[in-house]
């Protein structure tokens, strides 16, 4: 696995594209080997075109799972690349462009995913937005706040509600949280708050859905080399990205995906619900 830690200063606009990154992230394309953990399952991965979502899609497909990818329309190229890897693994891939900040679109994505895959067993709420800010909370605009809260929280609620129409006993929901829930950066005040809320929702929903046999968990990544970073952090911050972790480096998306496989698989996680699984490079998740 590539753990190239030379990240030159670079900047993109959100949502960011994989092929504009130097180096391109390692999403497990060359290395991930499946062991039939998810054979015959069907998963919707929001933000599945790139970064952590792409690594999850590749891993799930190699574990025997059909995958639906939700992403923004401008990310079609990244989505098609991910779909190629899913097809190469011999699995079906549904491509579902759409802005999840719109309720009807968010709900429609779920219905299309279930329609194209013939049902849904796993939901990965992974789409997310952040934007590093300078200045005080007093300068924060409602437009910025809306983009972060609608993408990270409203969409998660809408998508989860709609997915519950399809998820049956044995189903699993996995939310992508962040180390920002525990170690918030001042520049990501709003984003960090959404990730703390996602942890709270995860535990709360696990209690509600346990009696229906549906497990709900969260993965808590530390710094991960994905398009989100050059698209939302100042260029000069990129070279030291991840250096402040105990392991002294950022993760590649391929290093985060196995946590999602573990939580999705009834073989490994049939009694795991209401927990957060840290993949943080050493920072605690408590
Ligand atoms: P990424 O940019 O590759 O993925 C994020 C995806 O979110 C985008 O590809 C996009 O498809 C989707 N998205 C954003 N706004 C959307 C909208 N309005 N409608 C539909 N889709 C939308 O970056 P990533 O780092 O892989 O992010 C995946 C998740 O991981 C996010 O929830 C992010 O908060 C979380 N995370 C990332 C890091 C990190 O360091 N990269 C750390 C902790 C948590
Ligand atoms: Mg993307």
CATH topology, by name, is Rossmann fold
Secondary-structure-derived class:
alpha/beta
Shape, per Cα inertia axes: globular
Please provide the count of β strands: 7
Which ligands appear in the coordinates?
nicotinamide-adenine-dinucleotide, magnesium ion
Low-confidence stretches: none
* Biggest sheet statistics: 7 strands, parallel
Q: How many separate structural domains?
A: 1
Question: What is the distance, rounded to the nearest whole angstrom, between the alpha carbons of the first and last residues?
Answer: 29 Å
The ordered string of helix (H) and strand (E) elements is EHEHEHEHEHEHHHE
Mean pLDDT: 97
Radius of gyration: 17 Å
In the sheet with the most strands, the strands line up as 3-2-1-4-5-6-7
Q: What's the name of the CATH homologous superfamily?
A: NAD(P)-binding Rossmann-like Domain
Describe the structure.
With 286 residues, the protein is of the alpha/beta class. The protein has one domain: Rossmann fold (3-Layer(aba) Sandwich), CATH 3.40.50.720. It contains 8 helices and 7 strands. The chain has a 7-stranded parallel sheet, with helices on both faces. Helix 2 links the parallel strand 2 and strand 3. Helix 1 packs across helix 7 and helix 3 packs parallel to helix 4. The longest helix has 22 residues. It is globular. The protein starts with 41 loop residues before the first strand and ends in a 7-residue tail after the last strand. Nicotinamide-adenine-dinucleotide binds next to helix 1, strand 2 and helix 6.
